[in-house]
Amino acid sequence: MSNKINHSMSLAKPDALDITTKQKVSLATGIFGLFIFILALFNTNFPNKGTFLTLALLLISGGIIVYSREAYLSKLEGIKNDGQWFKSISSRGVWGWVLGLVLTGFYIVLYFYPKYLGLGQGINDANAGLVGLFDPLSQLLSGRDASQWFVYGTLYTIAILAFGYKFILKYKHNKYQQLRTFSVMFFQLGFAFLIPEFMYVMNNDLPYYDLKSVWPLNYYIFDEWSVNGFLSNGNIGLALILFGIASIFVITPILTYKFGKRWYCSWVCGCGGLAETAGDSFRHLSSKKMSAWKLERWLIHLVLVFSIVMTTAMVYTYLGYDKNDFWLTRGVFIAMVIGFLTLVFAGVMFFKRQELGKDAKYGAIGFFSIIAILLIMHFTGTTNHVFYIKGGALRSAYGIYIGSIFSGVIGTGFYPILGSRSWCRFGCPMAAILGFQQRLFSKFRITTNGGQCISCGNCSNSCEMGIDVRHYAQKGENIVRSSCVGCGICSAVCPRGVLKLENDTMKGRINPTEVLLGNDVDLMELVNQK
Amino acid sequence: MDHIVIIGNGISGVTTARHIRKLSDKKITIISAETDYFFSRTALMYIYMGHMKFEHTQPYENWFWEKNRIELKKGYVKTVETKSKSLHFADGDTLQYDKLVIATGSKPNKFGWPGQDLDGVMGMYHKQDLDKLEKYAPNKETCKRAVIVGGGLIGIELAEMLNSRSIPVTFLVRENSFWNGVLPSGESEMINRHIKNHHIDLRLSTNLKEIKANESGQVTSVIIEETGEELECNVVGLTAGVSPNIDFIKESEIETGRGVKVNRFLETNIKDVYAIGDCAEQHQPIGNRRPIEAVWYTGRMMGETLAQTICGNRVEYKPGHWFNSAKFMDIEYQTYGLVFGERSRPNYEKHFHWKHEDDTKCITIAYDKSNNKFLGINTFGIRMRHEVFDRWLTEKRDVDYVMNNLSEANFDPEFYKRFETDILFAYNQQLQIA
After folding, report:
1. pTM of the predicted protein model
2. Of B280, B310, B340, which one is at a domain's C-terminal end?
3. Which stretches of chain B drop beneath a pLDDT of 50?
4. Chain A interface test: which of B23, B48, B52 (most A C-beta within 10 Å)
């Protein structure tokens, strides 16, 4: 067989497309910038940390920027996917695995062993190493020393900005892609990175709050320390926590109804932002198999259930029994949660029973198990214990397994292996909620252009969420899937202009057909009426 | 239980099989000598360009066939015996059928050029052609230049493929402008310029005289008919159209012309033998259509129709309004209804042509000059809605209506710049001059 399916083990792959000298130089520049970080990691004592940090960040972003300009500006506008399945790094070759291991290692150290990054390892608990190198920037922004999270946040933001620039050049003919990328760059730089720092400067008792990060993605917003932090800060704290609640119950459903979940997942979200920019070179690696889809549906909804139960339990443990202390007692709270879930469940069953088909059964089982779990918790829980374990233990299990390992180590560390959106696809509870809304109550769909599909597979191949887009397109059927984040790449790469993301009326959104447009009108009617 | 045997696992054969399965419980076997599983032929180019791997061009996962009880047989049918209803394979195997569907598609044309069967000469149609190209043109060091003969849809795709690996390409086109047997001149000339912008050595009004080889039979150069110029090259792509792939039934009693002759029910002269897709030839052309249509969509539509007939609901093949699409390097092309190039244009047909100043977008609208009836549109670089044009053609709208409602048909991604106002302005200007 030809077609490069078997990878050569050679690092200098003979078939890889050449990069230009200028690109090699820019690659070296970027690596040199990273090398400064490595030196810092091994506690090299830089005479002027601020200068070296600036230098490193400039070299890295500069390398990416020059590389991208050389890659895309010298060519005509169009789809630029040549050789993506040949390059070792983007086709699970040796370099792909190396990068995967490096990223995974970085996340493990970041989450579990920050001292190796130099956190609090200097004299009098000051920072040393890599975290120490970032102290000047942190001091500049918020007047405090850096933490490992500040280092991570800075690198994350740089990645989104620099690779976002690359992405904008790659799709220089596509306004939708450009605006969307500009949007994630803006939200990352402003909302996730700068605003929380400035908020700290204004009021250093407020908990870190990235306004665009909505529960359950932001799973710590209802933790006791966080809620106390907000509530002890007067009106601004109260306003923030009310905004957090409104985001879940009001803002999110309205926007998702109007635009689909893309308004969040591929325009605002930070995880999505990284996947769309730095992860773009790996989007085609997501599995399109039916088996992966099955796994996805179980996994993501289990995480959702876990996060609902965990959050409820967390809030539950710090509420009191007596309504004279505070109107929101444990009993009232549990009743509200159950009431809300029942309302959602009943509404869906009433309006959308037909569309759900046999999935309705799974939905019902899921719903009643949550209710049962919550009731058991209510009647067996004590002051610190829920389900006979410490409430805090449940919360920290969620934090470790879902918040850290799933979203960080696997979600991002495995970019070069599983594709860029494995967290969004298999794990993110926020994506599950938005997807549920998108599937059932949204004007968004990807419209298929009559009978024009040639089943080539470019759409499915480039879907980062692993949706087999072609499966629908070749039947002339619109794509209405809960997992679709609306990135629009399927539409961009389609060589025949078959796919269009749009918000239209709910009516006729889902349109299964037997015979495609273009055939005998009588025949189409005959078979479609069955 | 009827045994339906389909020769050919392309879009026509597979569509037939799928629809027969939806409608019935008949036994179905699909035969192919090319690949184990159905793949999208139109996507072969993307494998060579590294956009996809071969497995991604397969629209159905491998378990699909067993789950739907569609048997697959790999083998080359050598002869068809219609009296005993049996097929004889090259390896000596035989197979009985109750109903036979011939869906063997096309093969690249060769016009008897000296050297056309040398090593390094290939079409770009079958999976095997792709394997050959990978062998002879893996990179620009092994293949220092490639020459493509024949300026049609496959030729320009092959040029794009080779270009993706930085292999220099000389593109010989017999006509004086690219694909102008089909495209009106404004469009054809725009594509000429686009090809050249990709640094492809486009030679118009140029024919191949012969292909030369070294002593081991490997291509070394081609000679050009008009000038006698010798061009050194390592690969020659023959892309001067395709013709029905039906040599194996020439000896049988099934009537053939250029393709397998069929009536409007896609039946051949022999009972229980049908032919569909690229290899089928209508006795009488349907409307303004050609008797052989080697297009993905028509293959699929014939498959949809024939499945009805085989399952007891005998229906005529009545394709709706013509449509097609292609992509010329970076420029997408769609067409709805019929727009003729200069050579074959009926004298009642008049054109309105608009081109954007960036030279990558244009449209041509054809209408009947006697009554202003809208006949069809070619659109380049602007996506349009199939459904809307299909409806307008059915409603027999006039050209003014189409021009004034063009925005309804736009299918470009959100936030794209729109050109309806410019187009309408140009149209009204032209009316005033005329």
Report:
1. 0.93
2. B310
3. none
4. B52
